[in-house]
Design a protein that fits this description.
Bound molecules: adenosine-5'-triphosphate, magnesium ion
CATH superfamily of the largest domain: P-loop containing nucleotide triphosphate hydrolases
Main location: nucleus
Oligomer: single chain
Number of strands: 19
Number of domains: 3
GO biological process, one term: regulation of transcription by RNA polymerase II
Protein name: RuvB-like helicase
Distance between the termini: 59 Å
EC number: 3.6.4.12
Radius of gyration: 27 Å
Shape: globular
Number of helices: 14
CATH class of the largest domain: Alpha Beta
Organism: Helobdella robusta
């Protein structure tokens, strides 16, 4: 099994609407603070999420599932993402939406399986022979391109590495130079190069440079102790899906065209069930030997009512397997029919036998004050200024419509305010945007009133 080449693949999260949410906002006893870490109210659901978090941390939770149930816009997705933030980057969190399983190319169960494996982490500890230190020089040596034509190629690269104990100059292969460039290594960074594979890892910037004025957040690390050339324990956090991808064979031959193609698009790989079983076997062996540790993460399936009976059956079985993540579902549906059945009605559109296994957390509608607090939080993160009176009017609208509708009014209202030559949104702009854009309820009402005017 290849481990060196494993790159951690994170799914990009849909966070734009929730970028003000930074955590669950609980105190040290697990009680929810009225307003903290970007979350407002909804105390019970947040505290319940806090307990789930504890269970995940103490590893007493794998193979279980939680359902967040409540009306639209009551913060289900926000609470799930807050939980992810609390878990930190070392515990995998894989968000998906129920409707993602429907594709003409991939089987539904395949999509579910892939996401399951994205949510199971593996922490691998290995002792490796490395060259480690702060980079003191980095000089690529160029030669004329041997194929003729323009440009030069790199023949080798000279790198200087320094530790607290000594320093060394190394002459490296050009392939390692690529690795150095990919990691964006510069003089003053602390890096290590694996002796066997030549893989380069940048650990951070040497803390001697900590006073440097930096625009980007940098991680500063101390100058490594010991020799440059040494044995080092390397810890890697990967998911089972990362291992699947790294070990799957790319499709197509090794001809020039397909080589070029690889630069254009990500490699098309085929992950088979057989490969997964192989990997599971090796992973289990590593766990037994104490080289690796399983880190069950979280699979978050939003809008779970979009799944059909086949998916539910599959999920039910997958939850029973020995390596399973914690699954968090969310839905805003009440009683509705389960997809893929002949009108079998069930609470939340989830089959009763699966529902029976879930821990259900409810989210409740917000009060006017809470809506006001959330709108003002959103305005802050979006850098929008709003007058007190306008804010009060917005929360009033929020009570009658939904929280999501009013938060969505913020941006158009701020554009209106700008065209009106104002710095802050006033009540006038709120009224105007509210009359320009309809919320779901009033739109439905208009449809009902004028149904003879529309095409059937
Ligand atoms: N308690 C809260 N504190 C701060 N912001 C919140 C809170 N609840 C919801 N929000 C924000 O309000 C918006 C709507 O909430 P969210 O998307 O989480 O609702 P939902 O319950 O998932 O709704 P749906 O059922 O429609 O998916 C989001 O921008 C979210 O970040
Ligand atoms: Mg949601």
């Amino acid at each position: 099994m290849k481990i060196e080449e494993v790159k951690h693949t994170t799914k990009s999260q849909r966070i734009a609407a929730h970028s003000h949410v930074k955590g669950l906002g609980l105190d040290e006893n697990g009680f929810a603070l009225q307003m903290a870490s970007g979350l407002v109210g909804q105390e019970q659901a947040r505290e319940a999420a806090g307990i789930v978090l504890e269970m995940i941390r103490s590893k007493k939770m794998s193979g279980r599932a939680v359902l967040l149930a409540g009306p639209p816009g009551t913060g289900k997705t926000a609470i799930a993402l807050a939980l992810a933030q609390e878990l930190g980057s070392k515990v995998p969190f894989c968000p998906m939406v129920g409707s993602e399983v429907y594709s003409t190319e991939i089987k539904k169960t395949e999509v579910l399986m892939e996401n399951f494996r994205r949510a199971i982490g593996l922490r691998i500890k290995e002792t490796k022979e490395v060259y480690e230190g702060e980079v003191t020089e980095l000089t690529p040596a160029e030669i004329e391109n041997s194929f003729g034509g323009y440009g030069k190629t790199i023949s080798h690269v000279i790198i200087g590495l320094k530790t607290a104990k000594g320093s060394k100059q190394l002459k490296l292969d050009p392939t390692i130079y690529d690795g150095l460039q990919k990691e964006k290594v510069e003089v003053g960074d602390v890096i290590y190069i694996e002796a066997n594979s030549g893989a380069v890892k940048r650990q951070g910037r040497s803390d001697i440079y900590a006073t440097e004025f930096d625009l980007e957040a940098e991680e500063y690390v101390p100058l490594p102790k010991g020799d440059v050339h040494k044995k080092k324990e390397v810890v890697q956090d990967v998911t089972l899906h990362d291992l699947d991808v790294a070990n799957a064979k790319p499709q197509g031959g090794q001809d020039v065209i397909s080589m070029l193609g690889q630069f254009m698009k990500p490699k098309k790989t085929e992950i088979t069930d057989k490969l997964r079983q192989e990997i599971n076997k090796i992973v289990n062996k590593y766990i037994d030997q104490g080289i690796a540790e399983l880190v069950p993460g979280v699979l978050f399936i939003d809008e779970v009512h979009m799944l059909d009976i086949e998916c539910f059956t599959y999920l039910h079985r997958a939850l029973e397997s020995t390596i399973a993540p914690i699954v968090i579902f969310a839905t805003n549906r009440g009683k509705c029919s389960i997809r893929g059945t002949e009108d079998l009605v069930a609470p939340h559109g989830i089959p009763l036998d699966l529902l029976d296994r879930l821990m259900i957390v409810r989210t409740m509608p917000y009060s006017k004050e809470e809506i006001q607090q959330i709108i003002s939080l959103r305005a802050q993160t979006e850098n929008i200024q709003i007058e007190e009176e306008a804010l009060a009017k917005m929360s009033e609208i929020g009570v009658k419509t939904t929280l999501r509708y009013v938060t969505q009014l913020l941006t158009p209202a701020s554009i209106l305010a700008k065209t009106n030559g104002k710095e802050k949104i006033s009540k006038e702009e709120v009224d105007e945007t509210h009359s320009l854009f309809f919320d779901a309820k009033s739109s439905a009402k208009i449809l009902a009133e004028q149904k003879d005017k529309y095409m059937k």
